[in-house]
Design brief:
The chain is of the alpha/beta class. Helices cover 41% and strands 19% of the residues. The chain folds into three domains: 243 residues, Alpha-Beta Barrel (TIM Barrel); 62 residues; 122 residues, Alpha-isopropylmalate synthase LeuA, regulatory domain (Double Stranded RNA Binding Domain, 2-Layer Sandwich), CATH 3.30.160.270. The strands form four sheets. It has an eight-stranded parallel β-barrel, surrounded by seven helices. It has a three-stranded antiparallel β-sheet with strand order 11-12-13. The protein is globular and about 80 Å long. Bound molecules: acetyl coenzyme *A, 3-methyl-2-oxobutanoic acid and magnesium ion. Its EC number is 2.3.3.13.
Amino acid sequence: MSERVYIFDTTLRDGEQSPGVSLNVEEKLRIAQQLERLKVDVIEAGFPVASPGDFEAVKRIADEVRGLEVAALARANQRDIDTAWEAIKRAASPRIHTFIATSDIHLKYKLRKSREEVLELAVSAVKHASSYTSNVEFSAEDATRSDLAFLAQVVEAVIEAGARVVNIPDTVGYTVPHEYERIISYLKEHVANIDRAIISVHCHNDLGLAVANSVAAIRAGARQIECTINGIGERAGNAAMEEIVMILRTRQDVFPYHTEINTRQIVPTSRLVSHLTGMVVQPNKAIVGANAFAHESGIHQDGVLKERSTYEIMSPEDVGWSKSAIVLGKHSGRHALKAKLEELGYHLADEELDRVFRRFKELADKKQEIFDEDIEAIVADEVFRLPDKYELKYLNVISGTTTIPTAMVEVSIEGQGTKRLAGFGVGPIDAAYNVLAQITGTASRLLRFSVTSITGGTDAQGEVTVRLEEGGQVVMGQGADSDIIVAAAKAYLNALNRLERLKKKNERQVQGMCPAKV
Ligand SMILES: CC(=O)SCCNC(=O)CCNC(=O)[C@H](O)C(C)(C)COP(=O)(O)OP(=O)(O)OC[C@H]1O[C@@H](n2cnc3c(N)ncnc32)[C@H](O)[C@@H]1OP(=O)(O)O
Ligand SMILES: CC(C)C(=O)C(=O)O
Ligand SMILES: [Mg+2]
Protein backbone atom coordinates (compact mmCIF):
# COMPACT_ATOMS: atom_id res chain seq x y z
CA MET A 1 0.00 0.00 0.00
CA SER A 2 1.32 3.47 -0.88
CA GLU A 3 1.89 6.12 1.79
CA ARG A 4 -1.03 8.33 2.80
CA VAL A 5 -1.19 12.07 2.21
CA TYR A 6 -3.68 13.92 4.41
CA ILE A 7 -5.95 16.52 2.85
CA PHE A 8 -6.53 19.64 4.93
CA ASP A 9 -9.24 21.70 3.29
CA THR A 10 -9.19 25.43 3.96
CA THR A 11 -11.98 26.48 1.59
CA LEU A 12 -13.96 27.85 4.53
CA ARG A 13 -11.07 29.88 5.95
CA ASP A 14 -8.45 30.84 3.32
CA GLY A 15 -11.00 30.25 0.55
CA GLU A 16 -13.35 32.71 2.21
CA GLN A 17 -10.51 35.24 2.22
CA SER A 18 -11.01 35.57 -1.56
CA PRO A 19 -11.90 39.19 -2.26
CA GLY A 20 -15.67 39.54 -2.49
CA VAL A 21 -16.52 36.24 -0.83
CA SER A 22 -18.53 36.14 2.37
CA LEU A 23 -20.41 33.01 3.37
CA ASN A 24 -23.14 32.90 5.98
CA VAL A 25 -23.40 30.22 8.65
CA GLU A 26 -25.86 28.05 6.68
CA GLU A 27 -23.73 28.20 3.56
CA LYS A 28 -20.59 27.25 5.48
CA LEU A 29 -22.37 24.33 7.09
CA ARG A 30 -23.53 23.06 3.68
CA ILE A 31 -20.01 23.21 2.31
CA ALA A 32 -18.65 21.46 5.41
CA GLN A 33 -21.21 18.66 5.00
CA GLN A 34 -20.20 18.26 1.37
CA LEU A 35 -16.50 18.20 2.34
CA GLU A 36 -17.39 15.37 4.72
CA ARG A 37 -18.88 13.43 1.78
CA LEU A 38 -15.74 14.19 -0.19
CA LYS A 39 -13.86 12.59 2.71
CA VAL A 40 -11.28 15.26 3.39
CA ASP A 41 -9.27 14.57 6.54
CA VAL A 42 -9.43 18.02 8.14
CA ILE A 43 -11.47 21.13 7.47
CA GLU A 44 -10.34 24.51 8.60
CA ALA A 45 -13.77 25.86 9.45
CA GLY A 46 -12.75 29.47 10.05
CA PHE A 47 -10.97 32.03 12.18
CA PRO A 48 -13.31 32.31 15.21
CA VAL A 49 -11.90 35.54 16.63
CA ALA A 50 -12.50 37.31 13.32
CA SER A 51 -16.22 37.92 13.81
CA PRO A 52 -19.23 36.58 15.73
CA GLY A 53 -20.49 35.12 12.43
CA ASP A 54 -17.25 33.21 11.90
CA PHE A 55 -17.31 32.01 15.51
CA GLU A 56 -20.88 30.79 15.11
CA ALA A 57 -20.11 29.03 11.80
CA VAL A 58 -17.09 27.21 13.24
CA LYS A 59 -19.11 26.19 16.29
CA ARG A 60 -22.02 24.86 14.22
CA ILE A 61 -19.65 22.90 12.00
CA ALA A 62 -17.82 21.49 15.03
CA ASP A 63 -21.13 20.48 16.60
CA GLU A 64 -22.76 19.01 13.49
CA VAL A 65 -20.09 17.68 11.12
CA ARG A 66 -18.73 14.68 12.95
CA GLY A 67 -16.87 12.61 10.38
CA LEU A 68 -13.65 14.60 10.15
CA GLU A 69 -11.26 16.81 12.11
CA VAL A 70 -12.37 20.41 12.52
CA ALA A 71 -9.61 23.01 12.79
CA ALA A 72 -9.90 26.64 13.85
CA LEU A 73 -7.28 29.29 13.14
CA ALA A 74 -5.77 31.49 15.84
CA ARG A 75 -2.95 34.03 15.92
CA ALA A 76 -0.20 33.33 18.41
CA ASN A 77 -1.97 34.94 21.33
CA GLN A 78 -4.07 33.75 24.22
CA ARG A 79 -7.35 35.40 23.24
CA ASP A 80 -7.38 33.99 19.70
CA ILE A 81 -6.54 30.52 21.00
CA ASP A 82 -9.18 30.64 23.76
CA THR A 83 -11.81 31.77 21.23
CA ALA A 84 -10.78 29.10 18.74
CA TRP A 85 -11.04 26.41 21.41
CA GLU A 86 -14.41 27.68 22.59
CA ALA A 87 -15.70 27.30 19.03
CA ILE A 88 -14.37 23.79 18.34
CA LYS A 89 -14.27 22.13 21.74
CA ARG A 90 -17.32 19.96 21.04
CA ALA A 91 -16.02 18.68 17.68
CA ALA A 92 -15.51 14.93 17.31
CA SER A 93 -11.86 15.69 16.65
CA PRO A 94 -10.89 19.34 17.26
CA ARG A 95 -7.63 20.90 16.10
CA ILE A 96 -6.21 24.29 17.08
CA HIS A 97 -4.18 25.84 14.28
CA THR A 98 -1.99 28.65 15.52
CA PHE A 99 0.47 30.64 13.44
CA ILE A 100 3.02 33.43 13.40
CA ALA A 101 5.27 34.74 10.65
CA THR A 102 8.96 33.80 10.62
CA SER A 103 10.35 35.87 7.71
CA ASP A 104 12.42 38.94 8.53
CA ILE A 105 10.25 41.08 6.30
CA HIS A 106 7.12 40.19 8.32
CA LEU A 107 8.97 40.48 11.63
CA LYS A 108 10.35 43.92 10.83
CA TYR A 109 7.38 45.63 9.17
CA LYS A 110 4.26 43.78 10.32
CA LEU A 111 4.88 42.25 13.72
CA ARG A 112 7.65 44.67 14.73
CA LYS A 113 9.25 41.95 16.77
CA SER A 114 12.67 40.34 17.02
CA ARG A 115 13.33 36.70 16.15
CA GLU A 116 13.67 35.92 19.86
CA GLU A 117 10.26 37.43 20.59
CA VAL A 118 8.60 35.53 17.73
CA LEU A 119 10.21 32.27 18.84
CA GLU A 120 8.86 32.83 22.33
CA LEU A 121 5.37 33.73 21.08
CA ALA A 122 5.28 30.63 18.86
CA VAL A 123 6.28 28.34 21.70
CA SER A 124 3.90 29.84 24.25
CA ALA A 125 1.02 29.76 21.73
CA VAL A 126 1.59 26.06 21.07
CA LYS A 127 1.90 25.34 24.80
CA HIS A 128 -1.33 27.23 25.50
CA ALA A 129 -3.16 25.42 22.67
CA SER A 130 -1.77 22.11 23.96
CA SER A 131 -3.36 22.79 27.34
CA TYR A 132 -6.71 22.31 25.53
CA THR A 133 -5.91 19.53 23.07
CA SER A 134 -3.04 17.39 21.89
CA ASN A 135 -4.13 18.10 18.31
CA VAL A 136 -2.22 21.32 17.65
CA GLU A 137 -0.92 22.58 14.33
CA PHE A 138 1.61 25.38 14.01
CA SER A 139 2.20 27.43 10.86
CA ALA A 140 5.31 29.48 10.19
CA GLU A 141 3.71 32.14 8.03
CA ASP A 142 5.82 33.27 5.06
CA ALA A 143 8.12 30.30 5.68
CA THR A 144 9.49 30.30 2.14
CA ARG A 145 10.97 33.79 2.58
CA SER A 146 12.35 33.00 6.03
CA ASP A 147 15.93 32.40 7.02
CA LEU A 148 16.17 28.62 6.94
CA ALA A 149 18.21 28.23 10.12
CA PHE A 150 15.68 30.37 12.04
CA LEU A 151 12.77 28.49 10.46
CA ALA A 152 14.32 25.20 11.57
CA GLN A 153 14.83 26.59 15.09
CA VAL A 154 11.15 27.63 15.33
CA VAL A 155 9.91 24.32 13.93
CA GLU A 156 12.00 22.32 16.39
CA ALA A 157 10.85 24.46 19.32
CA VAL A 158 7.12 24.21 18.48
CA ILE A 159 7.34 20.44 18.06
CA GLU A 160 9.01 20.30 21.47
CA ALA A 161 6.16 22.47 22.82
CA GLY A 162 3.53 20.02 21.52
CA ALA A 163 2.76 20.75 17.85
CA ARG A 164 1.66 17.59 16.08
CA VAL A 165 1.58 19.16 12.62
CA VAL A 166 4.06 21.79 11.38
CA ASN A 167 2.98 23.78 8.36
CA ILE A 168 5.54 25.45 6.09
CA PRO A 169 3.40 27.84 4.05
CA ASP A 170 4.34 29.58 0.85
CA THR A 171 2.17 32.47 2.00
CA VAL A 172 2.86 34.80 -0.90
CA GLY A 173 3.22 32.20 -3.65
CA TYR A 174 6.91 33.03 -4.08
CA THR A 175 8.71 29.71 -4.14
CA VAL A 176 9.28 27.35 -7.07
CA PRO A 177 9.08 23.53 -6.99
CA HIS A 178 12.77 22.61 -6.71
CA GLU A 179 13.39 25.32 -4.10
CA TYR A 180 10.39 24.19 -2.03
CA GLU A 181 11.61 20.60 -2.18
CA ARG A 182 14.97 21.84 -0.87
CA ILE A 183 13.32 23.75 2.01
CA ILE A 184 11.34 20.69 3.14
CA SER A 185 14.42 18.46 2.80
CA TYR A 186 16.46 20.98 4.79
CA LEU A 187 13.93 20.84 7.63
CA LYS A 188 13.96 17.04 7.57
CA GLU A 189 17.72 17.11 7.90
CA HIS A 190 18.12 19.94 10.40
CA VAL A 191 15.16 19.60 12.80
CA ALA A 192 16.13 16.93 15.30
CA ASN A 193 12.57 16.04 16.36
CA ILE A 194 10.93 16.35 12.91
CA ASP A 195 9.80 12.71 13.00
CA ARG A 196 7.41 13.58 15.85
CA ALA A 197 5.30 15.80 13.59
CA ILE A 198 3.59 15.68 10.23
CA ILE A 199 5.00 18.20 7.76
CA SER A 200 2.27 20.19 6.07
CA VAL A 201 2.39 22.62 3.15
CA HIS A 202 0.07 25.46 2.21
CA CYS A 203 0.71 27.08 -1.15
CA HIS A 204 -0.60 30.23 -2.77
CA ASN A 205 -0.90 30.70 -6.49
CA ASP A 206 0.62 34.13 -7.14
CA LEU A 207 2.96 32.70 -9.79
CA GLY A 208 0.58 29.92 -10.83
CA LEU A 209 2.73 27.33 -9.02
CA ALA A 210 0.60 26.41 -5.99
CA VAL A 211 -0.22 22.88 -7.17
CA ALA A 212 3.26 22.21 -8.61
CA ASN A 213 4.85 23.38 -5.36
CA SER A 214 2.50 21.24 -3.27
CA VAL A 215 3.32 18.04 -5.12
CA ALA A 216 7.04 18.88 -5.08
CA ALA A 217 6.78 19.15 -1.30
CA ILE A 218 5.19 15.70 -1.13
CA ARG A 219 8.25 14.29 -2.89
CA ALA A 220 10.42 15.85 -0.19
CA GLY A 221 8.38 14.45 2.70
CA ALA A 222 5.29 16.62 3.29
CA ARG A 223 2.32 14.44 4.24
CA GLN A 224 -0.43 17.01 4.75
CA ILE A 225 -1.56 19.31 1.94
CA GLU A 226 -3.57 22.43 2.67
CA CYS A 227 -5.73 23.35 -0.27
CA THR A 228 -9.12 24.65 -1.37
CA ILE A 229 -11.86 23.59 -3.73
CA ASN A 230 -11.43 25.27 -7.14
CA GLY A 231 -8.22 26.83 -5.78
CA ILE A 232 -10.06 29.81 -4.29
CA GLY A 233 -8.34 31.87 -1.62
CA GLU A 234 -6.46 35.05 -0.76
CA ARG A 235 -5.30 36.99 -3.89
CA ALA A 236 -4.60 34.48 -6.72
CA GLY A 237 -5.87 31.68 -4.51
CA ASN A 238 -4.57 28.50 -2.91
CA ALA A 239 -3.56 25.14 -4.34
CA ALA A 240 -6.60 23.48 -5.93
CA MET A 241 -7.51 20.30 -4.07
CA GLU A 242 -9.02 18.54 -7.06
CA GLU A 243 -5.81 18.97 -9.03
CA ILE A 244 -3.55 17.67 -6.27
CA VAL A 245 -5.76 14.66 -5.59
CA MET A 246 -5.98 13.74 -9.25
CA ILE A 247 -2.24 14.20 -9.83
CA LEU A 248 -1.55 11.69 -7.05
CA ARG A 249 -4.15 9.30 -8.39
CA THR A 250 -3.28 9.59 -12.08
CA ARG A 251 0.51 9.60 -11.71
CA GLN A 252 1.02 6.79 -9.19
CA ASP A 253 4.16 5.93 -11.15
CA VAL A 254 5.73 9.27 -10.14
CA PHE A 255 3.90 9.84 -6.83
CA PRO A 256 3.42 6.56 -4.95
CA TYR A 257 1.04 8.18 -2.42
CA HIS A 258 -2.69 8.12 -1.92
CA THR A 259 -5.45 10.18 -0.31
CA GLU A 260 -8.78 8.99 1.05
CA ILE A 261 -10.74 11.47 -1.10
CA ASN A 262 -13.91 10.16 -2.71
CA THR A 263 -13.07 11.57 -6.12
CA ARG A 264 -16.62 11.13 -7.44
CA GLN A 265 -17.67 13.94 -5.13
CA ILE A 266 -15.16 16.38 -6.65
CA VAL A 267 -17.40 17.94 -9.29
CA PRO A 268 -20.48 18.31 -7.04
CA THR A 269 -18.28 19.93 -4.39
CA SER A 270 -16.73 22.26 -6.93
CA ARG A 271 -20.15 23.35 -8.16
CA LEU A 272 -21.49 23.87 -4.68
CA VAL A 273 -18.52 26.03 -3.70
CA SER A 274 -18.77 28.00 -6.94
CA HIS A 275 -22.48 28.67 -6.48
CA LEU A 276 -22.22 29.68 -2.85
CA THR A 277 -19.10 31.83 -3.13
CA GLY A 278 -19.98 33.38 -6.50
CA MET A 279 -16.47 32.45 -7.71
CA VAL A 280 -17.07 31.21 -11.23
CA VAL A 281 -14.99 28.25 -12.43
CA GLN A 282 -13.26 29.04 -15.72
CA PRO A 283 -14.28 26.57 -18.47
CA ASN A 284 -10.69 25.46 -19.09
CA LYS A 285 -9.97 24.80 -15.39
CA ALA A 286 -8.36 21.37 -14.88
CA ILE A 287 -10.67 18.59 -13.59
CA VAL A 288 -13.73 20.72 -12.80
CA GLY A 289 -13.96 23.19 -15.71
CA ALA A 290 -16.82 22.66 -18.17
CA ASN A 291 -14.32 21.89 -20.95
CA ALA A 292 -12.01 19.66 -18.90
CA PHE A 293 -13.28 16.53 -20.67
CA ALA A 294 -14.73 18.10 -23.82
CA HIS A 295 -13.22 17.30 -27.20
CA GLU A 296 -13.73 19.89 -29.90
CA SER A 297 -11.44 19.04 -32.79
CA GLY A 298 -12.09 16.26 -35.31
CA ILE A 299 -8.80 14.41 -34.85
CA HIS A 300 -9.31 14.30 -31.09
CA GLN A 301 -12.95 13.24 -31.42
CA ASP A 302 -11.95 10.48 -33.83
CA GLY A 303 -9.27 9.30 -31.39
CA VAL A 304 -11.60 9.32 -28.38
CA LEU A 305 -14.31 7.48 -30.29
CA LYS A 306 -11.80 4.75 -31.23
CA GLU A 307 -10.14 4.57 -27.82
CA ARG A 308 -10.82 7.04 -25.02
CA SER A 309 -7.31 6.91 -23.58
CA THR A 310 -5.88 8.49 -26.75
CA TYR A 311 -6.88 11.91 -25.42
CA GLU A 312 -8.19 11.32 -21.90
CA ILE A 313 -5.82 10.65 -19.01
CA MET A 314 -8.64 10.40 -16.46
CA SER A 315 -12.18 9.23 -16.65
CA PRO A 316 -14.76 12.02 -16.22
CA GLU A 317 -16.97 9.71 -14.12
CA ASP A 318 -14.10 9.24 -11.64
CA VAL A 319 -14.24 12.91 -10.68
CA GLY A 320 -18.01 13.10 -10.63
CA TRP A 321 -18.99 14.20 -14.11
CA SER A 322 -22.16 12.22 -14.56
CA LYS A 323 -23.30 10.20 -17.52
CA SER A 324 -26.62 9.55 -15.93
CA ALA A 325 -29.36 7.30 -17.22
CA ILE A 326 -31.95 9.44 -15.43
CA VAL A 327 -33.36 12.00 -17.85
CA LEU A 328 -35.50 14.53 -16.08
CA GLY A 329 -38.44 16.17 -17.76
CA LYS A 330 -41.96 17.35 -17.20
CA HIS A 331 -43.22 13.84 -16.39
CA SER A 332 -40.62 13.04 -13.75
CA GLY A 333 -41.60 12.68 -10.11
CA ARG A 334 -40.01 13.32 -6.74
CA HIS A 335 -38.17 9.97 -6.63
CA ALA A 336 -36.35 10.59 -9.88
CA LEU A 337 -35.50 14.13 -8.82
CA LYS A 338 -34.20 12.91 -5.44
CA ALA A 339 -32.09 10.20 -7.12
CA LYS A 340 -30.65 12.76 -9.52
CA LEU A 341 -29.90 15.19 -6.70
CA GLU A 342 -28.08 12.50 -4.74
CA GLU A 343 -26.11 11.54 -7.82
CA LEU A 344 -25.05 15.18 -8.03
CA GLY A 345 -24.06 15.20 -4.36
CA TYR A 346 -27.04 17.11 -2.95
CA HIS A 347 -28.67 15.50 0.06
CA LEU A 348 -31.70 17.63 0.81
CA ALA A 349 -34.20 17.57 3.64
CA ASP A 350 -37.81 16.73 2.64
CA GLU A 351 -38.95 20.33 2.86
CA GLU A 352 -36.03 21.48 0.66
CA LEU A 353 -36.78 18.73 -1.83
CA ASP A 354 -40.38 19.96 -2.03
CA ARG A 355 -39.25 23.50 -2.84
CA VAL A 356 -36.79 22.29 -5.48
CA PHE A 357 -39.45 19.99 -6.93
CA ARG A 358 -41.90 22.89 -7.32
CA ARG A 359 -39.31 24.98 -9.15
CA PHE A 360 -38.27 21.96 -11.23
CA LYS A 361 -41.87 21.47 -12.41
CA GLU A 362 -42.17 25.15 -13.31
CA LEU A 363 -39.01 24.91 -15.40
CA ALA A 364 -40.07 21.59 -16.96
CA ASP A 365 -43.20 23.31 -18.23
CA LYS A 366 -41.03 25.78 -20.12
CA LYS A 367 -38.19 23.50 -21.19
CA GLN A 368 -38.10 20.13 -22.96
CA GLU A 369 -35.20 18.50 -21.17
CA ILE A 370 -33.81 19.38 -17.78
CA PHE A 371 -30.03 19.03 -17.47
CA ASP A 372 -27.91 18.49 -14.37
CA GLU A 373 -26.83 22.12 -14.53
CA ASP A 374 -30.47 23.25 -14.51
CA ILE A 375 -31.08 21.26 -11.33
CA GLU A 376 -27.99 22.67 -9.70
CA ALA A 377 -29.04 26.19 -10.58
CA ILE A 378 -32.43 25.58 -8.93
CA VAL A 379 -30.83 24.07 -5.82
CA ALA A 380 -28.44 26.99 -5.54
CA ASP A 381 -31.31 29.41 -5.82
CA GLU A 382 -33.84 27.65 -3.59
CA VAL A 383 -31.73 26.07 -0.91
CA PHE A 384 -28.48 27.92 -0.46
CA ARG A 385 -29.30 31.59 -0.81
CA LEU A 386 -30.37 32.49 2.68
CA PRO A 387 -30.88 34.63 4.53
CA ASP A 388 -30.93 37.46 2.00
CA LYS A 389 -31.94 41.07 2.52
CA TYR A 390 -33.45 41.48 -0.96
CA GLU A 391 -35.64 39.02 -2.81
CA LEU A 392 -37.08 39.45 -6.29
CA LYS A 393 -40.84 39.06 -6.18
CA TYR A 394 -41.99 40.28 -9.56
CA LEU A 395 -40.37 41.42 -12.79
CA ASN A 396 -42.02 42.50 -16.01
CA VAL A 397 -39.93 44.01 -18.77
CA ILE A 398 -41.18 45.42 -22.04
CA SER A 399 -38.74 45.95 -24.88
CA GLY A 400 -38.53 45.69 -28.63
CA THR A 401 -37.76 47.71 -31.73
CA THR A 402 -40.44 50.34 -31.17
CA THR A 403 -40.70 50.50 -27.37
CA ILE A 404 -38.70 52.36 -24.76
CA PRO A 405 -37.41 49.51 -22.61
CA THR A 406 -39.47 49.57 -19.43
CA ALA A 407 -39.18 47.50 -16.26
CA MET A 408 -41.75 46.97 -13.51
CA VAL A 409 -40.22 45.41 -10.44
CA GLU A 410 -41.26 44.30 -6.97
CA VAL A 411 -38.64 43.41 -4.36
CA SER A 412 -39.15 42.27 -0.80
CA ILE A 413 -36.71 43.88 1.62
CA GLU A 414 -35.98 42.28 4.98
CA GLY A 415 -37.72 44.28 7.69
CA GLN A 416 -39.29 46.75 5.23
CA GLY A 417 -41.92 44.71 3.36
CA THR A 418 -42.17 44.90 -0.43
CA LYS A 419 -41.34 47.86 -2.66
CA ARG A 420 -42.67 48.32 -6.18
CA LEU A 421 -41.36 50.66 -8.89
CA ALA A 422 -41.18 51.10 -12.68
CA GLY A 423 -38.55 52.79 -14.84
CA PHE A 424 -36.74 52.96 -18.15
CA GLY A 425 -33.34 52.09 -19.59
CA VAL A 426 -31.44 51.83 -22.83
CA GLY A 427 -32.21 48.11 -22.96
CA PRO A 428 -34.31 45.67 -20.94
CA ILE A 429 -31.52 44.75 -18.52
CA ASP A 430 -30.51 48.38 -18.07
CA ALA A 431 -34.15 49.21 -17.30
CA ALA A 432 -34.39 46.39 -14.73
CA TYR A 433 -31.09 47.42 -13.12
CA ASN A 434 -32.09 51.09 -12.95
CA VAL A 435 -35.27 50.17 -11.11
CA LEU A 436 -33.51 47.71 -8.79
CA ALA A 437 -30.90 50.36 -7.94
CA GLN A 438 -33.67 52.82 -7.05
CA ILE A 439 -35.62 50.33 -4.96
CA THR A 440 -32.58 49.22 -2.97
CA GLY A 441 -30.95 52.67 -2.84
CA THR A 442 -27.60 51.06 -3.60
CA ALA A 443 -24.55 53.23 -4.21
CA SER A 444 -22.68 50.37 -5.88
CA ARG A 445 -21.08 50.49 -9.33
CA LEU A 446 -21.47 47.69 -11.87
CA LEU A 447 -17.96 46.63 -12.87
CA ARG A 448 -18.72 43.59 -14.99
CA PHE A 449 -21.68 41.80 -16.49
CA SER A 450 -21.47 38.47 -18.27
CA VAL A 451 -24.01 35.95 -19.53
CA THR A 452 -23.39 32.29 -20.19
CA SER A 453 -25.78 29.62 -21.26
CA ILE A 454 -25.74 26.80 -18.72
CA THR A 455 -27.02 24.24 -21.21
CA GLY A 456 -27.49 24.16 -24.98
CA GLY A 457 -30.48 25.18 -27.12
CA THR A 458 -32.74 28.23 -27.18
CA ASP A 459 -34.59 26.91 -24.13
CA ALA A 460 -31.36 26.79 -22.12
CA GLN A 461 -31.07 28.32 -18.67
CA GLY A 462 -28.89 31.40 -18.77
CA GLU A 463 -26.51 32.23 -15.99
CA VAL A 464 -25.57 35.85 -15.34
CA THR A 465 -22.54 36.87 -13.32
CA VAL A 466 -22.04 40.43 -12.17
CA ARG A 467 -19.34 42.22 -10.25
CA LEU A 468 -20.31 45.21 -8.10
CA GLU A 469 -18.14 47.66 -6.22
CA GLU A 470 -19.08 49.85 -3.28
CA GLY A 471 -16.71 51.68 -0.94
CA GLY A 472 -13.73 49.63 -2.13
CA GLN A 473 -15.51 46.27 -1.60
CA VAL A 474 -15.95 44.13 -4.68
CA VAL A 475 -18.50 41.33 -4.77
CA MET A 476 -19.77 38.91 -7.33
CA GLY A 477 -23.34 37.80 -7.86
CA GLN A 478 -24.87 34.99 -9.88
CA GLY A 479 -28.38 34.26 -11.07
CA ALA A 480 -29.82 31.56 -13.29
CA ASP A 481 -33.14 31.36 -15.07
CA SER A 482 -34.55 30.32 -18.42
CA ASP A 483 -35.38 34.03 -18.87
CA ILE A 484 -32.12 35.90 -19.22
CA ILE A 485 -33.52 39.17 -17.84
CA VAL A 486 -34.79 37.42 -14.72
CA ALA A 487 -31.35 35.78 -14.38
CA ALA A 488 -29.76 39.23 -14.65
CA ALA A 489 -32.05 40.68 -11.97
CA LYS A 490 -31.33 37.74 -9.66
CA ALA A 491 -27.58 38.12 -10.17
CA TYR A 492 -27.77 41.83 -9.33
CA LEU A 493 -29.76 41.19 -6.15
CA ASN A 494 -27.46 38.32 -5.23
CA ALA A 495 -24.48 40.70 -5.43
CA LEU A 496 -26.35 43.33 -3.39
CA ASN A 497 -27.11 40.69 -0.75
CA ARG A 498 -23.43 39.82 -0.59
CA LEU A 499 -22.54 43.49 -0.21
CA GLU A 500 -25.02 43.75 2.66
CA ARG A 501 -23.42 40.78 4.39
CA LEU A 502 -19.95 42.24 3.95
CA LYS A 503 -21.14 45.58 5.36
CA LYS A 504 -22.60 43.85 8.42
CA LYS A 505 -19.40 41.87 8.90
CA ASN A 506 -17.28 45.03 8.65
CA GLU A 507 -19.55 46.95 11.03
CA ARG A 508 -19.19 44.20 13.61
CA GLN A 509 -15.40 44.28 13.28
CA VAL A 510 -15.29 48.08 13.59
CA GLN A 511 -17.51 47.97 16.66
CA GLY A 512 -15.19 45.34 18.14
CA MET A 513 -18.01 42.86 18.49
CA CYS A 514 -15.64 39.95 18.12
CA PRO A 515 -16.12 37.57 21.02
CA ALA A 516 -13.58 38.81 23.56
CA LYS A 517 -14.66 36.25 26.11
CA VAL A 518 -16.93 33.47 25.00
C1 LIG B 1 -1.67 34.40 6.00
C2 LIG B 1 -3.08 34.44 6.49
O1 LIG B 1 -3.97 34.14 5.74
S1 LIG B 1 -3.36 34.91 8.06
C3 LIG B 1 -5.08 34.95 8.25
C4 LIG B 1 -5.62 36.19 7.65
N1 LIG B 1 -7.02 36.27 7.85
C5 LIG B 1 -7.59 37.34 8.35
O2 LIG B 1 -6.94 38.31 8.73
C6 LIG B 1 -9.10 37.36 8.37
C7 LIG B 1 -9.66 37.68 9.71
N2 LIG B 1 -9.03 38.85 10.34
C8 LIG B 1 -9.74 39.74 11.08
O3 LIG B 1 -10.94 39.68 11.20
C9 LIG B 1 -8.94 40.77 11.83
O4 LIG B 1 -7.70 40.99 11.17
C10 LIG B 1 -8.70 40.29 13.30
C11 LIG B 1 -10.04 40.29 14.06
C12 LIG B 1 -8.07 38.91 13.36
C13 LIG B 1 -7.74 41.25 14.01
O5 LIG B 1 -8.23 42.55 13.89
P1 LIG B 1 -7.48 43.75 14.61
O6 LIG B 1 -7.28 43.43 16.03
O7 LIG B 1 -8.25 44.98 14.28
O8 LIG B 1 -6.01 43.80 13.96
P2 LIG B 1 -5.54 44.04 12.46
O9 LIG B 1 -6.12 43.00 11.58
O10 LIG B 1 -5.76 45.44 12.03
O11 LIG B 1 -3.97 43.83 12.62
C14 LIG B 1 -3.44 42.58 12.93
C15 LIG B 1 -2.71 42.60 14.28
O12 LIG B 1 -2.38 41.23 14.60
C16 LIG B 1 -0.94 41.08 14.66
N3 LIG B 1 -0.65 39.77 14.16
C17 LIG B 1 -0.70 39.36 12.86
N4 LIG B 1 -0.43 38.06 12.80
C18 LIG B 1 -0.22 37.64 14.06
C19 LIG B 1 0.08 36.39 14.61
N5 LIG B 1 0.15 35.33 13.84
N6 LIG B 1 0.23 36.28 15.95
C20 LIG B 1 0.10 37.37 16.74
N7 LIG B 1 -0.19 38.60 16.24
C21 LIG B 1 -0.34 38.72 14.93
C22 LIG B 1 -0.43 42.22 13.80
O13 LIG B 1 0.91 42.51 14.08
C23 LIG B 1 -1.38 43.33 14.20
O14 LIG B 1 -1.03 43.72 15.52
P3 LIG B 1 -0.97 45.26 15.99
O15 LIG B 1 -2.42 45.68 16.08
O16 LIG B 1 -0.32 45.18 17.33
O17 LIG B 1 -0.18 46.01 14.98
C1 LIG C 1 -2.41 31.03 8.20
C2 LIG C 1 -1.48 30.53 7.16
C3 LIG C 1 -1.41 29.04 7.16
C4 LIG C 1 -1.81 31.02 5.80
O1 LIG C 1 -2.95 31.07 5.37
C5 LIG C 1 -0.70 31.33 4.93
O2 LIG C 1 0.45 31.38 5.38
O3 LIG C 1 -0.95 31.56 3.72
MG1 LIG D 1 -2.96 31.18 3.17
